[in-house]
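To fix ideas at the outset, we first show an illustrative case, written as a sequence plus integers encoding its fold:
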Amino acid sequence: MKILFKFLIITAIVSLLLSCGGKEAVKKEEFDPVVYLKKADELVSKKEYEEARKLLLEIKNRESAKEYAPLAQLKIADSYLKEDEPELAITEYRRFIELYPESTYAPYAQYSIGMAYFRQIEGPERGAGTAQKALNEFLKLEKMYPRHPYGDILPLRIQKCRNIIAEGELIIGKFYHKKGSYTAAIGRFEGIVKNYPDFKNLDETLYLLVDSYKNLNMLDKAKQYLKLLKEKFPDSQFAKKAEGFRFQ
């Protein structure tokens, strides 16, 4: 009986110690969003994107103060961009702006949407549509967050998008012009003159407009664009080439 009693005492003590140890372990593994963010960054640097996102999602779901939840959402979007998944990144950046439109990180999220499209531009032949999407997002950034910190680089991004879109229109217009579909060509060329007056190949566009109207025997229009070509680009090779036009 004494032996049994001693055994029960020892068992109770061991159980108590184990219980205390368990609580200690739980305390050591308590949720810490800062630690989770650091671990997520480490996983991203190792290209373990899915595991990183699991930690970031846990921050969003568990952090009661919601102090780090916005940053976790932003890092989820960033992780998709680094994983070369631009469409998924765009979705997550949009979600960030919807959830935290007044956040100091919101301009970064909007700029990143534009850049996700911008990096997909392949050239004027196939990239004009993507350039238009990038341009729309960059203009949205200017409208929504006029005090954004991208004042030096954003105008260059916008100009490149505009040039690519205009160049795409010029390629299509030249295709119609070569086929003799002058009315269709004029639609493209005049769209460039109206919407992209700073286009780098505007002199060529004006020359082709003169030629298109001349071929349609719409001489007043042809003369109008010839005058504009000579005024804006007097030293251009296309202005000199246009001197050979004869209007009767």
